[in-house]
Structures are given as C-alpha cells and as structure tokens.
Design goal:
193 residues, mainly alpha, elongated
C-alpha cells in the first residue's frame, strides 16, 4: 500500500510525471484511493480501534486533518487572488507555482509519515486502522490531485480551473465523510460481536 502511494507521489511531484496529466487522470487517483480505503476496511480484521486516544494519537490526527484543510484553503485562496489579478504574497508570477507546489510536497510527506506510523501500529498492535490512517490517506490523495491540477494547461483559464479545484476538493471531502460513517458503523458492529 505504501509502495503504491510512494510511486504515485513520485510520479506526480517529480518534474515530468510518469502519468499523463489530463482530466482522465483524476478519476484514476480517486479510484486508487477508493480501492485502498476498501482494502483497509476489509483487511482490518483486528479489534476495533476504539480506545481513548493518547496525546500522540490526537497530535497525529490533528496534524493530518489540519494539513489537509490548510492545503485546500491555501490553494483556493491563491487561485482567488490570481483570479482578481493579484499575485499571492506579492510574489512574481513565476514564483507562485513553485511556492504552491512546495506546500503540497510538505503536506504530502507529513501525511505519508503519519500513514506509515498508523499502518505500523495497526499491524504491531493487531487492531483495526485508526481514523488517522484514513484521514492521512485521503489527504495524500488530495495532495496528488492538487499537484496534478497545478500542472494542467487549464491553469491559464483561472475560472475553469477554479471549477476543477472545487469539484475535486468537494469529492475528496465527501469521500472522507462517507469513509468515517462506514468506519463508525463497522466498528460498532465489531464491538457488538
């Protein structure tokens, strides 16, 4: 699972992508994410992870969730500024893309680390994947979609680009809510058994 995420991330963040960057690519990312979430739910045969979260658990959860929300707000804000003819933070136009891309790389790497820790803890303790694992996986996919969008030719048509950004952001956050609901019901069912 980690291998797939690393290869996909390398392909998107490493200059010329190993993936074609056009509109058909985003549903592929969403399909890979959906497959990984389903795999995590099916393979999570350990005890439900319902214990009271420790401070490190809460810190990882908060870091993952806040980094994802930050990246969405930061990207949306930058797009809105550009739509109004103003460069974010007074940067030169050529600096905006690398600035945004560097933010995505940091959030991606942070969530890759969090996901690896959660995966390791799930295997070591024999418990189901924690909610943090799902949040970090979804943020990882969000970052890959944002980075791929950043390199799309449609970036020149800011209004159309904003539509793409809002559609995929809404889709990802809806997936997160659905996953949390399914996970809640699965854990309740396992807890009763």
């Amino acid at each position: 699972m980690e291998f797939i995420i690393i290869v996909a991330g390398y392909g998107i963040f490493h200059g010329p992508s190993i993936f074609p960057l056009y509109a058909d690519f985003y549903p592929l990312i969403l399909a890979i994410m959906a497959a990984m979430v389903i795999f995590m739910m099916i393979s999570s045969r350990g005890k439900p992870s319902m214990r009271i979260l420790s401070r490190p658990d809460l810190a990882r959860f908060a870091a993952s969730l806040i980094s994802g929300v930050y990246s969405s707000l930061m990207f949306g804000w930058c797009i809105l500024k550009i739509m109004h003819g103003v460069m974010p933070f007074g940067m030169e136009p050529v600096q905006v893309g690398p600035f945004i891309s560097n933010q995505f790389v940091v959030v991606y790497l942070l969530n890759l680390l969090i996901f690896a820790v959660e995966l390791f803890r799930s295997i070591k303790d024999g418990v189901g994947f924690s909610v943090t694992a799902y949040v970090s996986l979804i943020v990882l996919n969000l970052e890959m979609i944002y980075e791929a969008l950043l390199h799309e030719p449609i970036m020149g048509v800011v209004e159309a680009f904003m539509g793409f950004f809002l559609r995929y952001t809404a889709t990802i956050y809806c997936v997160l809510l659905i996953v949390m609901a399914i996970r809640f019901f699965l854990n309740r069912k396992k807890g009763k058994d």
